[in-house]
Write a structure and sequence with these properties.
337 residues, alpha/beta, Rossmann fold
Length: 337
């Protein structure tokens, strides 16, 4: 089962090599953070205290729901692990009014924080006569454990290290997750043998499953831009390597800005400071000017670049499962190695 967990949706592919891919079970569900936010909102409406348990998961909607709960004057208690979803610094968590502890308040609503809900997947598959598989590949966006500095700085430092080590696409998939990637570590606690990837890396590998994109990558290169619900990631790919990239927040970009960023990324004039100062994550420009054979756009917010002369990648005709295709490709690659 390949599970690509974003800010708006979780996209799921039950991959079976014995079937045509079009006949494999495919699902697009609300993201875990949105499902958790809905549970918290129900507790808020019922004027119940909240007890957060579980581990590190994606924030955004879930964290906003916790803040709204606190704003109503309702108590929130979180276990030390669950508190990391709010912030890596426990002092900042407590400054919001959240108490960190292991005992739920009397009569409180218990909400478990996790990105992978095996029980829910099993219920859905049971309804159609399928079994929950033993093998998993999961993509999440992990900013890394960063209690005392901007998580944008920390996350992009990881991308810079990846690029400095050669930018090899195969290095984006983890069987052994680095200790600093606490969100991925939390997924590993749920599915210990899972292959883990960052959602941006999974999208790049997924786009390369499109024959036209793959052909361009192995000629003069391709620019792949994934415009997600929360984050936008662009990479220059040549062969099996990423040569340059930038990452931003989708709600902070416009069509005009993205076109400008893409042009200047290729020219090598887009800077890390410019992207970071614009509330993005950063940029690693290529070492030399690139003239790609193709620029391809994917992601649920790809309409931001409609009207431009870009190719809309959709392997197997399903753009929403781009990350799942990338996860499946990474897992097959590792098994063949």
């Amino acid at each position: 089962m390949a599970v690509d967990i974003g800010g708006g949706t979780q996209d799921i592919l039950l991959y079976d090599e014995s079937k045509a891919l079009e006949n494999c079970i495919q699902m697009v569900l609300p993201s875990p953070t949105r499902l958790v936010a809905a549970k918290i909102a129900r507790a808020t409406s019922a004027n119940k205290s909240l007890f957060l348990t579980g581990g590190v998961m994606g924030g955004g909607p879930s964290v906003r729901a916790v803040r709204e709960h606190l704003a109503r004057g309702l108590a929130v208690v979180a276990t030390p692990k669950a508190a990391l979803t709010i912030h890596d610094d426990p002092n900042r968590v407590e400054a919001l009014g959240i108490r960190i502890g292991s005992e739920p308040p009397a009569g409180s609503e218990v909400v478990e924080l996790h990105d992978v809900d095996l029980a829910m997947y099993k219920r859905l598959l049971d309804e159609v006569g399928e079994y929950l598989p033993a093998g998993f590949a999961v993509a999440v966006q992990d900013h890394g454990y960063s209690p005392y500095e901007s998580n944008r700085v920390f996350r992009f430092r990881l991308w810079e290290q990846f690029m400095a080590s050669g930018g090899k696409l195969n290095d984006l998939a983890y069987k052994d997750v680095p200790a600093a990637l606490t969100r991925m570590q939390s997924v590993k606690e749920t599915v210990p043998k899972a292959l883990l990837m960052d959602t941006c890396g999974a999208a790049v590998l997924g786009a390369l499953c499109d024959p036209r994109v793959k052909a361009a990558a192995h000629s003069s290169g391709v620019v792949i831009i994934n415009i997600g619900n929360q984050h936008t990631f662009a990479a220059i790919v040549q062969g099996e390597r990423i040569l340059g990239l930038f990452e931003h927040h989708t709600n902070a970009v416009t069509q005009q800005k993205l076109v400008s960023y893409l042009e200047r990324l290729l020219a090598g004039t887009l800077t890390n400071k410019e992207v970071f100062d614009d509330n993005g994550h950063g940029c690693v420009p290529p070492q030399e000017k690139i003239k790609p054979a193709l620029t391809t756009v994917t992601g649920p917010r790809r309409s931001l670049l409609w009207g431009n002369d870009y190719y809309l990648a959709a392997p197997q005709g399903n753009m929403m499962l781009m990350g799942c295709f990338g996860l499946a490709a990474a897992l097959k690659e590792q098994r063949q190695a």
